[in-house]
Amino acid sequence: MSMTDTKTPLVDHEEAARARREQVLRIAKWTLPSLVMVLTLLGWHLYVTLSEVPHYILPGPLLVLDKLIEDWDLLWAATLTTGRLTLLALGFAILGGALLAVAFTQSKWIEMSFFPYAVILQVTPVVAIAPLLQIYLDSPFVAALLCAWIVAFFPILSNTTVGLKSTDRNLEDLFTIYGASRWQRLRHLAAPSALPYFLSGLKIAGGLALIGAVVAEFVIGRAGTGLGLASTLLEASYRFNFGRLYAALILISLMGVTIFAVMSLISHLALFRWHESALKKDG
Amino acid sequence: MIPSRQPLGQRPELLKMAQVEKTFHGGVIALRNMNLTVNEGDFISLLGPSGCGKSTALKLVTGLMQPTSGRITWTGEEAAGDKGAGDLGVVFQEPTLMPWARVMDNVYLPFRIRGVPFAEVRDDVLEVLRLVGLEKFQRAFPRELSGGMKMRVSIARALVTKPRLILMDEPFAALDEITRFKLNNDLLSLREKIGCTVIFVTHSVFESVFLSDRVVVMAARPGRVIEELTVDAPYPRSEAFRTSAEYARYCRLASDALHRATGEAA
After folding, report:
1. Cβ-defined contact of B143 to A192 (cutoff 8 Å)
2. Residue B18 near chain A (CB below 8 Å)
């Protein structure tokens, strides 16, 4: 009591402390990872120079940067190649996964008949299937694309299927009472209900499409895709060109981060107005 | 003339349930021998303990469920051969709104399913939102609204097509008492304005007496009608009615009937 009587501040101590804490957290969210990055690079550099590690065992960060600049034309072309394969696989995964999910939810018979095979396709390691694809498919590019597609489509299929089934029971009844057609039900009830599920599947599928593309490049090689990042990486390792290897590795990693960021952005833009997952925690 | 302003005995018949029975798979009798005539303008409450078949009765009227035996006939149905069920408004215990759609789009839903373009019914949508006091929130999303406001949107959606019959399944049961009283009053003044016919399911004696001109008391195991009570108090009913001796007397009657209902079931 005495505290509020003597002085009536706009915000009390507890609130001020909370605000300070939040601000510190906001800053730390960016500065801490940046600091870790800088320290890691520094440690890496010092280790390589002080212990005189030969560059064909571990190149220092400066050498990697040199290679990145020196080989930029080659690396950028490889990035475009891998990027094209990844995006194409992701596009088909979205199309196939979503259409199959709709088919599964429209007909129990279709789901019962085919769902087990979708699972089998998913749990069989793609590395084991890829050589077969290469043998049976005439076009190595199609083989590589199929390889990446197999990995990417399942999370979209399974998430969208769950989403399409997670409609509100009372809304279902309401649609029935108002005499909605199958299409209206899908368009105005099931599809919007499934959207958040689909989008979280998309985030996973984006990363997996890249993994699938890299595996395809490793197994099927230049024949299928031209010179992508993964085949560049493999080739560099044969030649003990570890600077280029690391440069390619960094670009693959950056591509993964970019895909994830774009998928998260799409998800946020689609959901932030209405979906709980997109709400701020303090909101 | 608005039918709800006509005396009870002079209202034209709308819907008749004759010897309606519903037995669920496994032999549970949800509803036994229900007879009920709904007249235009009636405000009927189905009052009873859980398991008395009041929600089953509503589902049978919507056509979501078919009776095991007995008949449910809409006036003019046999002549026109239409199911009548397209002319219903329904309000559930939950607001049951589409979270991805703005308030106005939620209210527009019944028209959208019938294929009516929004431009044609924009005025109806805005008018009904004005009636429930939410015209300022037409562009809001459901999550931005309070529980009571969501329920108003749900009521607006049920009213927007001006249906012949509105079914309400314990719509205010999940709300706090202050909001519930407010919505009770608002529901009655809405009815004064538009004269809708309502079947209202509730387990609250006070709510049923305050709102209805007819209270149908039901018992459980098996679900059946025990008694029908006519609340012969004039509308509009205001807060003053809640504290009147007349209201207390009707509540007593309904409460006694309910005790007999639950006593028998025990």
Report:
1. no
2. no
Dist. CA A36–CA A48, nearest whole Å: 18
Q: Do B113 and A170 touch (CB under 8 A)?
A: no
pTM higher than 0.90 for the full model? no
DSSP assigned state of B234: P
Describe the crossing of helices A13-50 and A61-70 by its angle, rounded to 10 degrees.
Answer: 80
Backbone CA torsion sign across A168, A170, A176, A179: negative
pLDDT in tens, B222-240: 888 889 999 988 888 888 8
Which B residues in the span 97-116 are in contact with A, Cβ-Cβ below 8 Å?
98-101, 109-110, 112-114
* Residue pLDDT, tens place only, B10-35: 788 888 899 999 998 888 888 998 99
Q: How far apart are the CA of A158 and the nearest CA of chain B, in angstroms?
A: 22
Whether residue A192 and residue B100 make contact (CB cut-off 8 A), yes or no, is: yes
Q: Is A96 helix (H, G, I), strand (E, B) or coil?
A: helix
Query: Tell me, what's the pLDDT at A134?
Result: 84
pLDDT of residue A8: 59
Minimum-distance CB partner of B113 among A168, A178, A192: A178
Measured between beta carbons, the chain B residues lying within 8 angstroms of A180 are 113
* Token couple for A70: 């020196």
Order of all β-strands in the sheet with B29-39:
B29-39, B13-23, B69-74
Q: H or E stretch including B106? A: helix B103-114
Distance CA B176, CA A97 (A): 44
Q: Tell me the chain A residues in contact with residue B114 when contact means C-beta distances shorter than 8 Å.
A: 178-179
**Residue whose tokens read 């999940």:** B174
What would the mean pLDDT of B99-121 be, rounded to a whole number?
95
Give per-residue pLDDT as tens, B129-187: 999 999 999 999 999 999 999 999 999 999 999 898 999 999 998 889 899 998 999 99
Q: What three-state secondary structure class fits A7?
A: coil
Complete DSSP assignment for B120-132: HHHHHHHHHHHHT
Q: Report which of A208, A121, A187, A193 is spatially closest to residue A162, judged by C-alpha positions.
A: A193
Say how far apart CA A33 and CA B178 lie, in whole Å: 51
**Residue of chain B minimizing CA distance to A276:** B143
In DSSP terms, which residues pair with B200 in a beta bridge? B45, B168
Ranges of residues in chain A with a pLDDT under 50 are 1-4, 281-283
pLDDT score for A123 = 87
Distance CA A206, CA A94 (A): 10
A contacts of B143 (beta carbons < 8 Å) = 274, 276, 279
d(C-alpha B106, C-alpha B149), whole Å? 13
- The answer to whether B169 and B198 have CB atoms below 8 angstroms apart is no
Position B160 scores a pLDDT of 93
The whole-angstrom distance between A19's CA and the closest CA on chain B is 25
Q: What is the pLDDT of residues B56-83, one digit of tens each?
A: 999 999 988 999 999 898 886 654 444 4
